[in-house]
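Action item from last meeting closed. Structure (460 res):
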């Protein structure tokens, strides 16, 4: 039998790049030539192979496997990895809120024969910011001079952290400090500070900073900054100012994208201005901006909160007809609104129609429908939904279970109560307090014809 040609380092990189399954890619990386004699000298991996496999594993959070590769890289003294490889690793840990692992990678970089610069410092700051470790970020700034001089990106992340932490005065201090160090604030800097000011309801200061960035710093606001301001203004109910900014964008011939319209529509619904919200939605389409799924879901949510379910259903139908398939949020929003308004029949019809429309109910759908039925004392229907939930491995919230069982006890429907207790027992979804409540209610109200029935349910 002919021996297969061994895979070369170059060929391995090509195979890793084309392999979509990260698990298979990892197996290939660990053993590129499984058919070769074990006495053959070890495979000589390239830096590109290390980079490709780390990228694939990190993106899907296969961190145990990624760390095996990193350990191998540390011991592969032929290779001098580039800093960007470790920046990516810290980014992946940041996405997963694993800041401690990011710190460890940063500390160990010299062991990989890689020098730390402001790029890796900023990557670590990003991981800390993603995990909301604001104090650690401040400490990093104090000690970073031994690695590198902070740049504008460094200050932008620290300012962002301080704004999120509600320390706006400290954020302003850093803004002044970066300028004293000769670093020019950019669009990100101003956008972060303006958003922080809007969140603190300091509207005048936000508009003044917008003016100063143009007049003093020579930075022209882009669509992203307008979007930040409009979102902040809508959140604090300053809709007239938000619409003035929108008109300013039009005058400046900026593209108004769907997210800006979605924010304005949501703000109008929150203010109870339903007709105006629908008018903005229509304007959006007239201006050639195609509503996205978020646009339609904002409309459905707004109509549901206003108890205009007819309009909500029309939006649901309209989005499907226009090629924007409703998602689980679209249906759950409607089901939740219908249940809150006591429209059990309509909620049930929609719930049953979901699979036919290619959208399978999830645990949130079931919990909403179950809670709604229980709230309306529709106990028979709720018991049926409970059975479905248990079968699918879903469990209602513990408070919902307690209210449901309490309602059955109060109603005195022993047959249904015992059936429900049996279902909850099978799903291991009933706690001690609920059992005690059942026993107390049943004996107190003398609704149990035979104590053995309850004991049977308890055993089950």
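Sequence:
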């Amino acid at each position: 039998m002919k021996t297969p040609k061994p895979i070369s380092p170059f060929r391995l990189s090509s195979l890793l790049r084309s392999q979509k399954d990260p698990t298979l890619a990892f197996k290939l990386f660990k053993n590129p030539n499984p058919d070769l004699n074990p006495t053959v000298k070890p495979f000589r991996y390239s830096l590109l192979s290390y980079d490709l496999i780390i990228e694939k594993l990190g993106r899907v959070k296969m961190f145990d496997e990624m760390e095996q590769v990193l350990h191998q890289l540390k011991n592969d003294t032929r290779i001098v990895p580039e800093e960007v490889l470790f920046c990516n690793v810290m980014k992946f840990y940041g996405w997963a809120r694993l800041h401690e692992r990011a710190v460890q990678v940063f500390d160990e970089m010299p062991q990989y024969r890689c020098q730390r610069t402001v790029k890796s410092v900023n990557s670590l700051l990003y991981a800390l910011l993603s995990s909301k470790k604001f104090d650690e970020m401040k400490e990093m700034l104090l000690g970073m001079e031994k690695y590198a001089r902070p740049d504008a990106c460094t200050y932008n992340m620290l300012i962002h952290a301080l704004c999120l932490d509600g320390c706006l005065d400290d954020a302003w201090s850093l803004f002044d400090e970066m300028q004293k160090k000769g670093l020019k604030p950019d669009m990100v800097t101003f956008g972060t500070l303006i958003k922080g000011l809007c969140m603190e309801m300091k509207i005048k200061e936000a508009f003044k900073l917008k003016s100063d960035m143009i007049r003093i710093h020579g930075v022209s606001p882009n669509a992203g900054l307008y979007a930040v301001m409009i979102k902040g203004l809508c959140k604090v109910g300053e809709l007239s100012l938000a619409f003035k900014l929108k008109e300013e964008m039009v005058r400046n011939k900026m593209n108004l994208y769907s997210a800006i319209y979605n924010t304005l529509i949501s703000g109008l619904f929150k203010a109870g201005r339903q007709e105006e919200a629908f008018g903005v939605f229509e304007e959006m389409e007239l201006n050639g901006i195609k509503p996205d799924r978020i646009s339609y879901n904002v409309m459905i949510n707004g109509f549901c909160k206003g108890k205009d379910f007819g309009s909500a259903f029309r939006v649901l139908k309209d989005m499907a007809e226009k090629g924007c398939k409703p998602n689980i949020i679209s249906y759950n929003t409607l089901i939740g609104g219908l249940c809150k308004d006591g429209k059990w029949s309509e909620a049930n019809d929609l719930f049953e129609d979901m699979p036919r429309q290619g959208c399978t109910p999830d645990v949130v759908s079931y919990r909403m429908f179950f809670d709604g039925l229980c709230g309306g004392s529709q106990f028979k229907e709720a018991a049926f939904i409970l059975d479905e939930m248990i079968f699918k491995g879903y469990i209602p919230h513990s408070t919902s279970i307690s209210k449901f069982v309490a309602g059955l006890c109060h109603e005195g429907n022993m047959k249904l109560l015992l059936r429900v207790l049996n279902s909850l027992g099978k799903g291991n979804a009933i706690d001690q307090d609920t059992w005690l409540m059942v026993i107390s209610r049943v004996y107190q109200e003398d609704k149990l014809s035979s104590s053995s029935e309850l004991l049977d349910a308890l055993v089950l």
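Note appended to the action item: DSSP finds 26 helices and no strands in the chain.
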